[in-house]
Amino acid sequence: MNPRPHTRHPAIIRRLRNAEGHLRSIIAMLEEQRPCLEVVQQLQAVEKAVETAKKTLIHDHLDTCLERVLGPAEKAARAPIDEFKAITKYL
């Protein structure tokens, strides 16, 4: 059985590459002795980008792998999966 491709991987990769570039600029800010408040604000943005990438990856994995095992589900049957995905925001 061929695994179904994870459809959101390209978007996750783009988000992480953007975060990578942003992180390089933060390192430059530190080397330039920029104010700590500016640096922390930029670090917060990188953290949020990585967090969003992680959640997207988990949701994509759930969608892809569960559908592969269970087959396509009707909306009512997806309710527990959607609820599980919603609760992950508290992790």
Q: How much strand content do the residues show?
A: under 5%
Distance between the termini: 32 Å
Number of E-type strands: 0
Could you name the CATH class? Mainly Alpha
Q: Could you estimate the helical fraction of the residues in percent?
A: over 70%
CATH superfamily: Metal-sensitive repressor, helix protomer
General form: elongated
CATH topology: Methane Monooxygenase Hydroxylase, Chain G, domain 1
Number of helices: 3
Tell me what the structure shows.
With about 90 residues, the protein is mainly α. The chain has a single domain, classed as Methane Monooxygenase Hydroxylase, Chain G, domain 1. About 80% of the residues lie in helices and about 0% in strands. The chain contains three helices and no strands. The chain has helices at about 10-30, 35-70, 75-85. Helix 1 (about 10-30) packs antiparallel against helix 2 (about 35-70). The two termini are about 30 Å apart. Belongs to the FrmR/RcnR family. Pfam families: Trns_repr_metal. One of its GO terms (biological process) is negative regulation of DNA-templated transcription. One of its GO terms (molecular function) is DNA binding. This is Metal resistance protein.
